[in-house]
Amino acid sequence: MALTSKNSSITEVSEFLLNCFVKSPNLQCWLSLPLSLLFLLAMGANGILLTTIRLEPSLHEPMYYLLSLLSLLDIVLCLTVIPKVLLIFWFDLKSISFTACFLQMYVMNCFLAMESCTFLVMAYDRYVAICHPLRYPSIITDRFVIKAVIFIVARNALITLLVPILSARLHYCHSNVIENCICANLSVSKLSSDDITVNRLLQFAGGWTVLGSDLILIFLSYSLILRAVLRLKAKGAAAKALSTCGSHFILILFFSTILLVFVLTHVAKKIVSPDVPILLNVLHHVIPAALNPIVYGVRTQEIKQGILKLLHKGL
Q1: Beta strands 177-178 and 15-18, pairing class
Q2: Nearest Cα to 104, choosing from 149, 163, 46, 153?
Q3: Among candidates 212, 211, 186, which has minimal Cα distance to 197?
Q4: How many domains does the chain have?
Q5: End-to-end Cα, the chain, rounded Å
Q6: Contacts of 51 by beta carbon, 8 Å cutoff, 6+ apart
Q7: How far is CA 43 from the centre of its chain?
Q8: pLDDT above 90 for 156
Q9: What sign does the CA torsion over 269, 250, 223, 209 have?
Q10: pLDDT tens for residues 178-220?
Q11: pLDDT value for 174
């Protein structure tokens, strides 16, 4: 166990060990293949989507810029979590430095919150497009996207900064073994010899304030959209309006459903295996990332046409 001495009476941890499914070695073996395939799919699909939006002039619109931001966030989240998990599975490289652990903690918290906030901005975009279509070009502009991105980055970078700072200031003197595949806040903090009540409260309050408020506003937007759609009397108008936001709603379901299942299993950890919340936490960083660009690629005609154009140019 790597330790460094600050004085004669206190010996502090300089690195941690991620104890990832060590009680279930067969689970590691079985998980490594689908996890690596999902990782490759997420990287490839998001890379293709970003390239298509970048090179296809017809996709240079606010909605697709927001989708590009979502793909970037997914790529960063995958790269922050999945390669390290696979290194543990394949080569038993469990160690992670003190600095790297808290950096991973910050990136995970910050970018998940950014992703939630991006969904909120995309929901507002759909609300304006359907409920105020004549005003859409004047409201949802490139300047609006720039302001939205600044808001997404600034809000979540600042709000989530306190979590890793407080955790890093704790004293880790007894054990450096994290019972998790990732440096989750509470998994790390409970190793400390200090009182972590503040850390628990901050995690709970921050999570529900940021993610909870975003989800409430998202579903409020879709309630207003649904009400407006039901009032449309022109033949086929309702179906066409719903199809324009169907892809976005599916992505939100991916994000919120896995997150909700993770929260429920964590609450019911006395009933379910302790490996289940850990597994869901890992999957939450790769499954939405792999499925998001596929859903948009399949359901959005403009993106499909853009990808086909790129393929024809490449050939």
Answers
A1: parallel
A2: 163
A3: 186
A4: 1
A5: 54
A6: 310
A7: 14
A8: yes
A9: positive
A10: 999 999 998 999 999 899 999 889 888 877 788 889 989 998 9
A11: 81
Task: Please tell me the distance from the alpha carbon of residue 268 to that of residue 281, in angstroms, as a whole number.
Answer: 15
Digit-coded pLDDT (tens) for 109-136: 999 999 999 999 999 999 998 889 899 9
In a domain, 286, yes or no: yes
Of 164, 114, 108, whose CA–CA distance to 285 is shortest?
Answer: 108
186, part of any domain: no
Domain CATH code at residue 215: 1.20.1070.10
Q: Across the strands, what pairs with 4?
A: 12
Percent of the chain with pLDDT over 90: 53
Q: Where are the beta strands (DSSP E) in 20-140?
A: 95-97
Residue 32 covered by a domain = yes
Which range marks the domain in which residue 39 is found? 27-76+115-171+195-314
The CB-side HSE value for 176 (13 A sphere, CA atoms) comes to: 18
301-314 vs 287-299: helix crossing angle, rounded to 10: 90
State the residue for tokens 């960083």: 285
184 domain residue, yes or no:
no
Q: Tell me, what's the pLDDT at 164?
A: 94
Buried b / exposed e along 67-98 (16+ C-beta atoms within 10 A):
bbbbbbbbbbbbbbbbebbbebbeeeebebeb
Question: What is the Cα–Cα distance from 315 to 312, expressed in whole angstroms?
Answer: 5
Q: Which residues contact 98 (CB under 8 A, 6 or more apart)?
A: 13, 14, 15, 16, 168
- Give 232-280 pLDDT, tens digit per residue: 766 666 676 667 677 777 888 878 877 777 777 766 666 777 788 888 8
